[in-house]
Design brief:
Chain lengths: ~650, ~120
Amino acid sequence: MNLRNLSIERKLTLLAMLTSTLAVVLSSASFLIYDLVTFRSILSQDLATEAQIVAYNSAAAMAFNDEAAATVQLSALTAKQDLVAAVLYKSDGTVFAHYYRAGSPKPELPAPVEGREARVASGHIEVFNDVSLRGERLGTLFLQSDMQRWNTRARQYAGILVIFVLLSGLLAWFVSSRMQRLVSRPILDLEQAMRIVSVDKNYGVRAVKTTSDETGRLIDGFNTMLAEIQHRDKALQRANNDLKTRTQELEDEIVHRKRTQEELLKAKDAAEEASRAKSAFLANMSHELRTPLNAIIGYSEILEEETRDSGPAENVRDLRRIQGAGKHLLSLINDVLDLSKIEAGKMALHLETFEVESLLEEMITTLQPAAERNANRLQLRVHGDIGSMHADITKVRQILFNLLSNACKFTENGTVTLDAERQPGSEDRLYFRVTDTGIGMTPQQQRNLFQYFAQADSSTARKYGGTGLGLAISQRFTHMMRGDIHVTSHSGQGSTFTLELPAKVAPEAAEPSSELPASPPVVETLSDLPARTTVLVIDDDVSVRDLMSRFLEKLDYRVISAPSGLEGLRLAREIQPDIITLDVVMPQMNGWDVLDQLKSDPALASIPVIMITVVDHEALGLERGASNYLVKPIDRDRLAEALDRHRRPDEDSMALALSGDR
Amino acid sequence: MPTILLVEDNELNRDMLSRRLIRRGYTVITAHDGEQGHTMACSDSPDLILMDVGLPRMDGWQVTRLLKSNAGTREIPIIALTAHALLTDREKAREVGCDDYDTKPIEFERLLHKIESLLVVKGVL
């Protein structure tokens, strides 16, 4: 058993017992030894005294050589039980008389020693004493005594000692086993408390302090530590709970978002499906509508021809009205079909190279009857060598037809002029200008010009016919070919429509060719949408517009340009561009007025405007709300930097927002 | 007067166009599907064929291709009538050997102009 592994109680008890027993043993032993030594010297002294007396008494017997008397004298010593031998030596060292204790073996006699001497030898006390008479030494007396008494005493003492040690040990055990609790109890209590803490993880337990000693301080320290742990535990628990709550909230949020996302996706799918269905429906409908309509128009034409030959003349007028209404309906259906294709992104460009002048002459020929109807003069002016162009001829024809027939429609007894011009540059551009001397338009009318069903007013439709979709379609066709179409007009003084097209329409501008929607047209997915940052360039100078477009497109912006302030404002409202660059010096409406209008329109006020001009009025520009002010000639790096500041932060995420505009 | 074969499956269109052509003095024979059109083109030797392209049994493109590959019918001018003014249709018309094409809805005077030009070229008029 290892002492170290004993319990504290036992250790303390053992310690107390050992200490006290050791003390008792040591003190008793020293007392015992002292006593025994003293007792031995008393014994030898006694024996010496005895020897003196016997020597004195035996002197006469020796002087007279009376051996018997000497023997009697010695025999008197029998009363001394522990005396083993008494011998009288003559002066020559021979034995004169002797006495040996009965029952004891005859001892070895030592040689006589002169004088007086007491010694302890081989467990006996031996004493020599001279026998003298009147100063004459007669012989020597030798007494030998055993240590019987001393031994007995030592044995008794040893017994007493053992009993005493046992008793005192017992007492020490009894006392210490009680007294040790003073020390061990608090430690054991502490240990107990620690066990509870470590087993039950219950930090609310406190060790009871009963003393103010080191153990007391230890307990204090332990309790303080527990309190600290408990405090931290609680804080940790609180933090943990907070974390749990937050995690739960986040999880809820994620679930919520997922659900929203799913709903959005579903809604998107549904919307796409609906859009597909709508397009398919429109395509089918327009086809189904056209077939009977063709019959109506065709038969009314037959009837008209026949009636003209033989029937009542007034019927001819009615039949013409039927035809007119039918043709109007037909063009409406065609326009709606075109629009539905544009909306669905299914309108494709079919690019081919053709001679511009022959196309224009064909247009003039085609429209001659329409011009004559209102007694208009239709003229074509081609400036310089116009050459050929690479574009979608059907769409160019449709746009020009639309512009020219509008001009003829809204002009009476006037002139409709088609000017055509080629402007060379790094990329040649063609300008077709349709000028009439007709009724013209107010600024308000011009604003809505390119929107669906936006004729000057509802009475216009009654008076002039038309679907109100032509210009909107023309504009979208123009944009598809990366061109521009705009108008200048004054009410009562006629209008000028300018169609601007690149001489070579870039194939990337053309969407892949597709069959007409006999099968439902596929609606563009979100990722196909142009998600680039859109810049609206407002500048009256075509070369600036052209330069800006090419430069900005290289920087991956989507560029839409407007040749005038009015058109710029209109486009800004329509397309909600991300950035606007604005020229200051422009005819009709200058850049400052455009800026003011932009900033006063809540829907447009947040669009950053970069003023680009030859006039250095930076402070004025910034004061009026422009984001940047660049002075011509334009420093490309500065422009790029200014634009970059307003670029969409995450272009992909904006695709959804953009799709809402479509 | 020249004979025109009108291959058209829609009864109203067939009736309308044939009546108007007749009024202009043409002899008009009609077929209502591709097969019949082919048969009549071979047997009746019309001076010109107006060929709707969306026909049952055999479409207008196929009939045209057959007629243009046959020495007996190769010389008959064919005007394709397509429903939509698609570039692909125009190219297809050229590819299969049509002499001209026109789009529906038929603008009668324009079609008449095309018919007459072809007949003049052929020497019938």
